[in-house]
Known about the structure:
Structural class: mainly alpha
CATH architecture: Orthogonal Bundle
Radius of gyration: 12 Å
Shape: globular
Largest sheet: none
Amino acid sequence: xxxxxxxxxxxxxxxxxxxxxxxxxxxxxxxxxxxxxxxxxxxxxxxxxxxxxxxxxxxxxxxxxxxxxxxxxxxxxxxxxxx
Length: 83
């Protein structure tokens, strides 16, 4: 799965929780979930659970702590899929 495919799959997972529409339209791997999209910590947990379901992977606590932006989410998902 390449970068664009991964971002395309993450977008609908993230969209229900965003608070900044403009930042979401310009979503890139540098987008920060909290700072840019204004997603609160409770919704960040929901996103992580949705990512687990969508990709059929299991995320550990340390993975969740690192998943603060699109780039780290992509990296963690890729590593879990390759494992």
